[in-house]
From TrEMBL:
Residue span of region Disordered: 45-68, 181-229
Biased amino acid composition, Low complexity: 45-60, 189-223
InterPro entries, sorted: NTF2-like_dom_sf (IPR032710)
Highest taxon above the source species: Bacteria
Keywords: Membrane, Transmembrane, Transmembrane helix
Stretches that traverse the bilayer: 20-41
Identification of the protein by name: Uncharacterized protein
Origin organism lineage: Bacteria, Bacillati, Actinomycetota, Actinomycetes, Streptosporangiales
Length: 229
């Protein structure tokens, strides 16, 4: 059987312990309040913690930098210099790719190859303005620098051919462009055309095909065009 509850004042020892706990609680509240006030009023606390925007704007992965444009431009120029016309087309802007299909652009350079293949490009200057950039580059064998436009789309920099070139792709077909460039002497000649003469028999040497050799546009070898064509 339990004992009935006790009434009246508690023992003296319990009263002393209760007062000690209350005093400690009050002291803790006062100390916490003082620390909070000092933290708010201390101006050095804001200086020790930099704003969040500083860490994002100076991030090494920022794509709006001259180095990012330089790398994208060099990749596009290397693809063109190596004769990888399809890969070069892949690095165009969205609007530029709509002017001609990838298959037709590859066929264009199969019928009208570069006069000088494999000549590397060297990027000289890069100027970035928001999501657009201007790249100045020259090619081996031609010290004259040319300017190329680039635009940032979907987080990457893409080459923008001149508007007149895009209009030419839209209005003219590949066959017409090839015919005009061959007439202007800006097309290289595929190797099988020049190598067919030695295989002809001796009796056919005076025949008509031999007289067509001087019309080979590759013999003129004018200065090559920049990778806008």
């Amino acid at each position: 059987m339990g004992y009935p509850p006790q009434y009246g004042p508690p023992p003296r020892g319990e009263t002393g312990r209760g007062l000690t706990v209350i005093v400690l609680m009050v002291a803790g509240l006062i100390i916490g309040t003082v620390i909070a006030v000092l933290t708010v009023l201390d101006p050095s606390a804001a200086q020790d913690s930099p704003p969040a925007s500083a860490s994002t704007s100076d991030a090494p992965g920022d794509a709006r930098t001259e180095e990012a444009v330089r790398q994208a431009a060099q990749a596009a120029f290397d693809a063109y210099a190596d004769g990888r016309s399809g890969d070069f087309w892949d690095l165009w802007s969205t609007r530029a790719r709509s002017s001609i299909t990838r298959e037709e652009y590859v066929r264009l350079f199969q019928l009208c190859p570069q006069l000088v293949a494999g000549a590397a490009f060297t990027v000289a200057d890069v100027y970035v303005t928001g999501d657009t950039a201007l790249v100045s580059a020259s090619r081996t064998g031609d010290p004259t620098p040319y300017d190329y436009d680039f635009v940032r789309e979907d987080g990457s920099w893409r080459h923008v051919p001149p508007p007149e070139e895009q209009e030419e792709y839209r209005v003219k077909g590949v066959d017409r462009i090839v015919a005009e460039r061959r007439t202007a002497g800006t097309c290289g000649t595929p190797a099988p055309i020049t190598s067919s003469a030695p295989s002809a028999p001796a009796s056919s040497a005076p025949s008509a095909p031999a007289t067509s050799a001087p019309s080979d546009p590759a013999t003129s070898a004018p200065s090559f065009t920049p990778p806008t064509g």
